[in-house]
Design a protein that fits this description.
The complex is a heterodimer. Chain A is mainly α. Chain A has 9 helices and 2 strands, in the order αααββαααααα. Chain A starts with a helix and ends with a helix. Chain B has one domain (2-48, 55-88). By secondary structure, chain B is mostly helical. Classes of the chains: A mainly alpha, B mainly alpha. The interface between A and B is large, with 78 and 58 residues.
Chain lengths: 250, 89
């Protein structure tokens, strides 16, 4: 455990030094009306199947294991808090964590699609942050790609016999980063660069997104481990049930 | 690695930019994202407008803090509940 702790600290500091001098820009959800309608439609169509599968999984969990409701609420609340926090980053602009890693690890990525979408709806309707036409695209990046990357990287870390906490940290961090990489892809596809094409535009968006996002991704990873530690101490029985379910599903 | 150290690191990561990076307002993405799009596609017109927009920064702050407060409240409640459950056996 000691060695892992050092590993995390060193990564944090290295990244900090590396990116403390990068150019300043932004990173957030795609604003209302800022995707051409056909792209908005494409992302809606890609997103919906995940949403419906997630809805079914979630209903099943609530019906078969009502004692899990509390953990579902916790995962939802975690995403609510984290995505409300605009956090200053080394690039001189602010962005926010997504909080989707935790729920994806507890209940699988599909359930997190539903939870993430609920949060995005709240922000789109009440805060004019993101939008309804771009909800498909934003949900696909934050509530589909993010949770799936979290899940896959967690499984990969476990296969490599990396410790549980470090796996959780890596999963949450990658979920956050992947969300914004996906957003860059979506923007690049819709607004290709005049000279560089889609790839050129992607590099433009991705570089600015990524640099702002890396420290936030680390923060998100750390906070997710904090909650995970807590769950590990106090909700052993629930975690065991979830783990068995997950194993039988494979 | 205990939680206190993790929280301290998280706090450090948030506070450090405020100390290290000068001459910036840490602006949120929204306006800047629009700028970038307009730079790449100067003729693009947003074709849909938001139904409801908070009528100013203060109301927006209120709604954002409400979102965080609701979430934090729920987390606190659940954590307390689980702790109590464990303590009572």
């Amino acid at each position: 455990m000691k060695r892992n702790a050092w590993w995390i600290v060193c990564t944090c500091l290295t990244v900090y030094v590396l990116f403390a001098l990068s150019p300043s820009v932004y990173a957030m959800h795609i604003m209302e009306g800022f995707l051409p309608w056909h792209w908005a439609l494409v992302w809606w169509l890609l997103f919906l199947p995940f949403f419906f599968v997630g809805l079914r999984t979630m209903t099943r969990i609530v019906k078969q294991q009502p004692e899990m409701k509390m953990l579902l609420a916790l995962a939802t609340a975690f995403t609510f808090v984290l995505s409300a926090l605009k956090i200053p980053s080394v690039t001189g602009s602010s962005s926010h964590p997504t909080g989707t890693g935790l729920g994806a690890l507890l209940f699988g990525p599909f359930v997190m699609t539903v939870i993430g979408t609920a949060v995005l709806m709240f922000q789109a309707l009440l805060l004019a942050h993101g939008g309804l036409t771009t909800l498909g695209a934003n949900a696909f990046s934050m509530a589909v790609i993010g949770p799936f990357v979290a899940y896959v990287s967690f499984v990969a870390c476990q296969k490599l016999r990396i410790s549980m906490r470090l796996s959780v940290f890596v999963a949450a961090m990658f979920a956050n980063l992947a969300t914004y990489v996906m957003t860059s892809i979506q923007l690049a596809l819709a607004f290709p660069d005049a000279t560089g094409g889609v790839w050129g535009a992607f590099l433009k968006f991705a570089s600015i997104f990524a640099f702002t996002q890396i420290p936030l991704a680390i923060t998100e990873g750390l906070l997710t481990v904090v909650v995970w530690n807590f769950l590990h101490t106090y909700t052993k029985q629930e975690l065991n049930i979830l783990q068995q379910k997950g194993a039988s599903a494979k | 690695m205990n939680n206190r150290l993790l929280l301290f690191l998280a706090a450090l990561l948030i506070v450090l930019p405020l100390v290290v990076v000068k001459h910036t307002e840490f602006a949120g993405a929204d306006a800047l994202a629009e700028e970038m799009i307009q730079q790449l596609a100067p003729n693009y017109e947003p074709w849909f407008d938001v139904f409801f927009e908070p009528p100013g920064g203060e109301v927006e702050t209120l709604l954002f803090s409400l979102q965080a407060a609701i979430g934090a409240g729920v987390i606190g409640y659940i954590i307390g509940l689980y702790r109590g459950r464990k303590r009572n056996g």
